[in-house]
DNA sequence: AAGTTACTTTAAAAAGC
DNA sequence: GCTTTAAAAAGTAACTT
């Protein structure tokens, strides 16, 4: 009986140690990404439920933490790309994506695909663009979504092109290079989305 | 009358020769064969006609990929095994071949709003940040489809051409039921 | 800016790490 | 899970020219 009791203590000790490690890992990743405490909290909730449902087996704590954070960012509408999550954590993009799918499936978390709209505030502020430009960009994105111009396209590329167009329209022009760097896409992608949006939506050629 | 023509793009088939094989012994019969046993346990032999690639193992099992028809897959396997037999007459003339996977493409004819499909269609995964296609898992037939905004589709996982065809048709039917096409 | 190549996803088998 | 093969879909990336 004593042996059993000792094992229990040892196990719970390990459990607590793992949780402490996971939370410190979460803090590290979150601060590197400049995420608010609310998102960090949401991520810890996802992580804890993953532990409760014994979903850590066969997976690294770092990976589950990274995937929980990725999911929390999406749910809180302040998305980070898999590349950004992979950069700050010590988990590969592939592993984060795979663990994310596993967690959402096992925990019945259904998140709609990331909307380009959710990237607008962050990109705009990093580019020092006004609220008017942000509103215009969001308006462009919503029209694009209605016309099915976003199916299959990367959300960051769509957000970047919309911001670029809005910045030109409202006289706060930014270069494609600056927008591309902030959004983490290439200028070619911005150009492709830009052409598609200006041609298939209203907008006269504003180049 | 859904009648969506599908195009078989790739066939994966395996064969069991029924006798273990000394890879170094038969390798000389296969021109251009590649083998890095440290990297992968099988020989890699690429045939030009039918354009296929075969993976040959010491256990006497073989995998053939790349054929665009079952006939060509079977043909490629026989051509490859016949060459091997020139250096190992013990290899039987007859052996079993099994189609393991069929990849086919098709066009549904109408564009799809993937975000809408993702919301209403069951068993889907759609992550445009990673891949432009929406993944749809059908249970019967047990195949997986990749749906694109253009209306083009890829069906994989089928063991028979009929299942690939049925998979595409059921998908189109389901999309119609949900008013997504 | 156009072209080319290449990687993302899906399935499946093989032998072994 | 990984390694290796082939092939399509469409988007994006990285090099060349």
From TrEMBL, chain B:
<comment type="similarity">
    <text>Belongs to the TBP family.</text>
</comment>
<keyword id="KW-0805">Transcription regulation</keyword>
<feature type="repeat" description="1">
    <location>
        <begin position="8"/>
        <end position="84"/>
    </location>
</feature>
<dbReference type="InterPro" id="IPR000814">
    <property type="entry name" value="TBP"/>
</dbReference>
<dbReference type="GO" id="GO:0006352">
    <property type="term" value="P:DNA-templated transcription initiation"/>
</dbReference>
<keyword id="KW-0677">Repeat</keyword>
<dbReference type="GO" id="GO:0003677">
    <property type="term" value="F:DNA binding"/>
</dbReference>
<dbReference type="InterPro" id="IPR012295">
    <property type="entry name" value="TBP_dom_sf"/>
</dbReference>
<dbReference type="Pfam" id="PF00352">
    <property type="entry name" value="TBP"/>
</dbReference>
<dbReference type="InterPro" id="IPR033711">
    <property type="entry name" value="TBP_archaea"/>
</dbReference>
<feature type="repeat" description="2">
    <location>
        <begin position="99"/>
        <end position="175"/>
    </location>
</feature>
<keyword id="KW-0238">DNA-binding</keyword>
<keyword id="KW-0804">Transcription</keyword>
<dbReference type="InterPro" id="IPR030491">
    <property type="entry name" value="TBP_CS"/>
</dbReference>
<comment type="function">
    <text>General factor that plays a role in the activation of archaeal genes transcribed by RNA polymerase. Binds specifically to the TATA box promoter element which lies close to the position of transcription initiation.</text>
</comment>
<dbReference type="GO" id="GO:0003700">
    <property type="term" value="F:DNA-binding transcription factor activity"/>
</dbReference>
<protein>
    <recommendedName>
        <fullName>TATA-box-binding protein</fullName>
    </recommendedName>
</protein>
């Amino acid at each position: 009986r004593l042996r059993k009791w000792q094992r229990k203590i040892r196990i719970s000790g390990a459990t607590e140690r793992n949780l402490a490690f996971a939370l410190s890992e979460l803090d590290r990743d979150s601060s590197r990404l400049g995420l608010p405490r609310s998102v960090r909290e949401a991520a810890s909730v996802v992580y804890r439920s993953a532990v409760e449902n014994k979903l850590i087996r066969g997976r690294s704590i770092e990976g589950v933490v990274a995937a929980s954070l990725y999911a929390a960012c999406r749910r809180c509408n302040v998305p980070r790309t898999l590349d950004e999550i992979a950069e700050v954590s010590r988990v590969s993009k592939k592993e984060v994506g795979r663990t994310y799918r596993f967690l959402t499936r096992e925990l019945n978390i259904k998140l709609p695909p990331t909307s380009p709209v959710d990237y607008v505030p962050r990109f705009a502020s990093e580019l020092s663009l006004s609220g008017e430009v942000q509103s215009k960009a969001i308006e462009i994105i919503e029209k694009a979504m209605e016309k099915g111009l976003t199916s299959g396209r990367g959300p960051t590329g769509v957000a970047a092109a919309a911001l670029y167009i809005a910045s030109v329209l409202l006289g706060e022009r930014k270069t494609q290079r600056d927008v591309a760097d902030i959004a983490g896409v290439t200028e070619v992608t911005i150009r492709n989305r830009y052409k598609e949006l200006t041609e298939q939506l209203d907008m006269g050629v504003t180049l | 009358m859904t009648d969506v023509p599908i195009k078989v793009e790739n066939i994966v088939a395996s064969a069991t020769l029924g006798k273990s094989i000394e890879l170094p012994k038969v390798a000389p019969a296969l021109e251009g064969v590649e083998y890095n046993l440290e990297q992968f346990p099988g020989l890699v032999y690429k045939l030009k006609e039918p354009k296929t690639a075969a993976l040959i193992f010491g256990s006497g099992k073989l995998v053939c990929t790349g054929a665009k028809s079952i006939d060509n897959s079977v043909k490629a396997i026989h051509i490859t095994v016949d060459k091997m037999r020139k250096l190992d007459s013990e290899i039987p003339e007859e052996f079993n071949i099994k189609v393991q996977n069929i990849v086919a493409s098709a066009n549904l004819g109408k564009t799809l709003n993937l975000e809408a499909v993702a919301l209403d269609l069951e068993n889907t995964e759609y992550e445009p940040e990673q891949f432009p296609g929406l993944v749809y898992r059908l249970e019967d037939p047990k195949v997986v489809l990749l749906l694109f905004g253009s209306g083009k589709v890829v069906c994989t996982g089928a063991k028979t051409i009929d299942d690939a065809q049925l998979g595409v048709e059921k998908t189109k039917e389901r999309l119609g039921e949900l008013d997504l096409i």
